[in-house]
TrEMBL record:
A GO MF term: phosphoglycolate phosphatase activity
Protein name as annotated: Phosphonatase-like hydrolase
GO CC terms of this entry: cytosol
Taxonomic source organism: Chitinophaga arvensicola
Tagged with keyword Hydrolase: yes
Any one biological process term the GO annotation gives: DNA repair
Keywords tagged on the record: Hydrolase
One Pfam family linked to the record: HAD_2
NCBIfam families: HAD-SF-IA-v1, PhnX-like
Amino acid sequence: MIKMVVFDMAGTTVNEDNVVYKTLQQAINEQGFSFTLEQVLAEGAGKEKLQAIQSVLAVYAGNNSVELADRIFARFRILLDQAYATLEVTEQENAGSLFQSLRKEGVLVVLNTGYQADTANGLIEKLGWQRGEDYDALITASDVPRNRPYPDMILRAMEQFGISNGREVVKVGDSTIDIEEGKNAGCALSIGITTGAHTKEQLQQASPDYIIHNLNELMPIIIS
C-alpha cells in the first residue's frame, strides 16, 4: 500500500517558466561562458544549485574550480531574488486537484526540491499552498547533508512520518536525477513526467517505472 508520494517542485508540480535555470544560465555565462539553457537543464536539473553549477562547468568546460562555482552561486542568489520580485508562478496543470485526491485517500503529499529552503518556500507562498491543507511536508536541499541522487530527502520525509519501508513510497519528478533518487531510496515506483526539464528520451535513460505527460495520469497508477 502506498502511504506517501514525494513530488519534485519546479517542472513537476510548479510552473515557474524555468526561471531558476534561466537565472543559473545567466549567472554562469556572466563569467565568460556561453552555455545554452538546454545544456544547463541537461546537467543541472533537479540538483542542488551549487552542485548544478559545478556539474555544468565540469562537463562542458572541464572547469572544477571551487572558487569560481562559489562566486557564480553567490551571484545566482542575487539574480534570483531580483527575478522573484516580479515572477508569476502557477501550479502545474492538475497539481492541486491531485494533491487533494491523494490526501482524501490517506496518502501523504510531500514536496522535495534541489532548491534552498528560502527559494522553495517563496514558490509555495506565491502559489498560496498551505501545509496541512494542500501538502503535508516540504524537504529541501537545505535540510539534508547529501542531495540528489542520494536518497536523503526522501528518507528524511519517511522518518518524519514514521515510514520505514520505501516500498510504501512513490517518487515523481521531471529529471533523471529525480528518478535516480527514488530508486536509491527503494521507492515502490519512480515516475518521470515530461512537463519540465527532461524529455521522454532523456527520462528513459534513468529507467523509470512509468513516464507520464500530465499529473492527472498518476491516480490510476498509485491507487489501484
